[in-house]
């Protein structure tokens, strides 16, 4: 049985509940909420092949797998304003990036050449079936954009691009009030949705679960399953193995509103045992 290493913040409910499941199932694991808890060695031979060994508690393990959650947040304790601690945080990050990339065992979710920017990369991977976002720093520009699109817009999903905090608004002028929750002096990206009804699916490995369906579409039909397969294939190419997909209906067609590379626990809490079993199965491959 593989020893599972969980890299993720202690405050994350996904981590907390998966840890409870592993304890109850008597599965060996280590939760690392700070990068210094991860022990590793990287060797490269003459022909350029890498060998990565992982360990905890001053000993290496031969059979391990890695589950990554919110990798940027586990650096929070070492991200400070002064240059020295900022440098340390960058070194920690570089090490984690290299180790998770080069490790030849199972990694969910594995970084790629852009580290863990999976949410943003999905825009390029699935451009033809994804609602395109708007980037702005001036709220007035955003309000003009909304007005130009017309009455078909029901709501907007706003994301602040430094902390990635999010809000959903129903009226363009309400961003001034709601924006206080995510920071008004920043850069944003927005998705303008023509429906407030959504389909949410979760993918773990090659398996998917329907979490929410507020539309009239059949999520068990061959066409939808084929679409999920396509999305999973494209996301697996950039390292994602555990994520959620949010769909909306735009002019009669399903379009991706957002792909969540760190889906929150509340989305699947009603089927958490099924999700945890599936996640464990992937990590033991």
Radius of gyration: 20 Å
| SS summary, helix count | 7
Structural class: alpha+beta
Helix content: 25-40%
Shape, principal axes of CA atoms: globular
Q: Tell me about the biggest sheet?
A: 4 strands, parallel
SS strand fraction: 25-35%
Strand order of the largest sheet: 2-1-6-7
Which stretches of 5+ consecutive residues score pLDDT under 50?
A: none
Number of strands: 15
Quaternary form: single chain
Order of helices and strands: EHEEEEEHEHEHEEHEEEHEEH
Compute the average pLDDT. 84
Q: Separation of termini?
A: 10 Å
Write structural notes for this entry.
This protein has 285 residues and is an alpha+beta fold. It is built from seven helices and 15 strands. The strands form four sheets. It has a four-stranded parallel sheet, with helices on one face. A hairpin with a 2-residue loop joins strand 12 (198-204) and strand 13. Helix 1 (13-24) crosses helix 7 (272-283). It is globular and about 60 Å long. The N and C termini lie close together (10 Å). The model has no long low-confidence stretch (mean pLDDT 84).
List the helices and strands and how they pair.
Layout: E1 3-7, H1 13-24, E2 29-32, E3 39-44, E4 50-56, E5 59-61, E6 64-68, H2 83-102, E7 107-108, H3 118-125, E8 134-136, H4 139-149, E9 155-160, E10 166-169, H5 175-178, E11 188-193, E12 198-204, E13 207-213, H6 222-236, E14 242-250, E15 253-260, H7 272-283
Parallel strand pairs: 1-2, 1-6, 6-7
Antiparallel strand pairs: 3-4, 4-5, 8-11, 9-10, 9-11, 12-13, 12-14, 14-15
Helix pairs in contact: 1-7
């Amino acid at each position: 049985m593989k020893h599972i290493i969980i890299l993720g913040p202690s405050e994350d409910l996904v981590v907390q509940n998966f840890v409870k499941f592993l304890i109850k199932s008597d599965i060996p694991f280590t939760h690392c909420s700070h990068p210094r808890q991860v022990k590793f060695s990287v060797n490269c031979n003459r022909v350029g092949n890498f060998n990565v060994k992982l360990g905890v508690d001053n000993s290496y393990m031969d059979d391990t797998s890695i589950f990554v959650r919110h990798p940027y947040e586990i650096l929070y304790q070492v991200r400070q304003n002064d240059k020295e601690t900022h440098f340390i945080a960058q070194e920690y990050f570089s090490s984690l990036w290299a180790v998770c990339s080069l490790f030849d065992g199972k990694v969910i979710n594995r970084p790629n050449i852009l580290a863990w920017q999976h949410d943003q990369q999905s825009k390029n991977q699935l451009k033809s079936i994804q609602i395109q976002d708007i980037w702005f720093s001036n709220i007035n520009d955003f309000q003009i954009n909304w007005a130009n699109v017309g009455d078909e817009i029901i709501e907007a999903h706003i994301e602040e691009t430094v902390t990635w905090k999010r809000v959903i608004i129903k009226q363009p002028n309400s961003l001034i009030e709601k924006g206080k929750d995510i920071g008004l002096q920043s850069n944003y990206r927005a998705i303008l949705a023509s429906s407030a009804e959504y389909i949410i699916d979760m993918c773990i490995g090659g398996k998917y679960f329907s979490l929410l369906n507020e539309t009239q579409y059949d999520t068990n039909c061959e066409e939808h399953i084929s679409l999920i397969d396509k999305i999973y294939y494209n996301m697996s190419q950039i390292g994602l193995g555990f994520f959620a997909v949010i769909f909306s209906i735009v002019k009669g067609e399903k379009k991706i509103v957002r792909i969540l590379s760190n889906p929150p626990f509340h989305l699947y809490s009603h089927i958490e045992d099924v999700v945890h079993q599936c996640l464990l199965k992937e990590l033991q491959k």
